[in-house]
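Researcher: I'd like a structural prediction for the single chain below. Treat it as a standalone chain; there are no partners to consider.
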Amino acid sequence: MPLPQKKIKYKRGFKKWSDDKAIDLRKNMGLISSAPLCAFELCEHLEIPLLRPENVPGISQELLTVLLKPGETYWSAASIPITDNDYIIIHNPIHSPARQQSDIMHEVAHILCGHVVPPEKKATGLSGFLRNHDEAQENEAEWLGACLQLPRPALLWALKKKMKMEEIGNFFQASVEMVRYRINITGVKKQLAYSKF
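Model: Treating it as a single chain, here is the predicted structure.
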């Protein structure tokens, strides 16, 4: 998942809702708010089927080869509506484990946010759906996906333990870039500094 490079405005209350959602999901799964959350286990908990390309019924060997060889860098994951309330997620198994976690969290975030594909895009079939790009929806999915992977309590816990970026990344199955982004964007270092006074 590419991380935002510019300041983005979200609808009022969205960031708090995202933090609360990340913590609530952990509680529902029997985890504390600072615990790592595996994207694969989250999909299982939410009953969202998670497929690799080779698990897609009827996919040809030729297409599979293109997706997993020369095309591997051009796609990460996709959430596909099956009915109005049911989705499947297809993800790229060639990417690093941390990237897979991030990609899947991003797609789960689209589903949790209730993002929908416009009817005119749906009418074009799967190819139209996969080409749909709504900047506001993508921004929300990036934010919530990152919260699911690294919520504020997790970052505060790790920084209090004086964990290095690489250690935090390994513990939470996140890239160092994601850890750095979340620490910077949430201001948790400042929060810890203020709490010492």
